[in-house]
Amino acid sequence: MLFMQNPFLKRARKFDTIPIKLGLLYSTMGCRQHLRILRDLEIVMVNALMPWGNRHLLPLGPLREPFTALNRADIIVIHHADLVHENDIEALESTIRKAERNLPIFLTKMAPIHFFPCRDISCKMSLRAVENMTVLCLSGIGFAGSFIQRIRKMGAAYVDHIDFSDHHLFENKDIEMVRARLQALESEFGTKPIVVITEKDYDRSPEALQHLNHYEVLVFCSRLQFLVYKGRTEERFKKIVRERLSI
């Protein structure tokens, strides 16, 4: 049984303490916002392509907590590690070790699986579907750079992109802007471009994307994959988690 103070119920004092039966409470938005919650495990995921930004906290920079908060973490995961050089990974690890010497560090990437077309979500398409194609990457995610890089690595002839803010819901005006960009690309390259979006964006706005029916819209599917790094593997990661949670 977890008892959690609810800051949203200030007017109803008798409900200030709410009993919740939970096996696991999982938060993804930065623990500084939830300091009153006792935590068994803290995993910090670092974007290898933009690890610390300008090192300033929101709203002046991308960090939700100061760099010194790393000493409170149990595990560090360096994500998109396959999109940077090995020297960059070594430099990242060195920086992390200065904050907390004994932190276990793991590497991950988003492994491409397949595409599916918006017109038929039951159809799985090969990752070669974008080879030699003119592609417009459309996204409303936290960091579009990794998504764009992966599509480029798949052999597209040309990759353009329109990036919206994270959690963006596509509206009619957005679709009109996308359609205008597609028409410009078709005029420039003489072939019909295709649109590639992430699963997250498709799940958020499937109806809006149907208005691009004159163009092929492909959804890029991927999954998190651990990389073997200095003997540290996915199994080692799971073992540490189980030990910390006493599972």
Fold blueprint:
Elements: E1 2-5, E2 17-20, E3 43-47, E4 75-79, H1 86-99, E5 105-117, E6 134-139, H2 144-153, E7 158-163, H3 172-189, E8 194-198, H4 199-204, H5 206-209, E9 217-227, H6 234-245
Parallel strand pairs: 3-4, 4-5, 6-7, 6-8, 8-9
Antiparallel strand pairs: 1-2, 5-9
Walk me through what this model shows.
The radius of gyration is 21 Å and the shape is elongated. The longest helix has 18 residues, at about 170-190. It is built from six helices and nine strands; from the N terminus they run ββββαββαβαβααβα. The chain is α/β, with parallel strands linked by helices. Mean pLDDT is about 85; it is low at about 1-15. Strands 3-4-5-9-8-6-7 form a seven-stranded mixed beta sheet, with helices on both faces. The protein has a two-stranded antiparallel sheet with strand order 1-2. The two termini are about 15 Å apart.
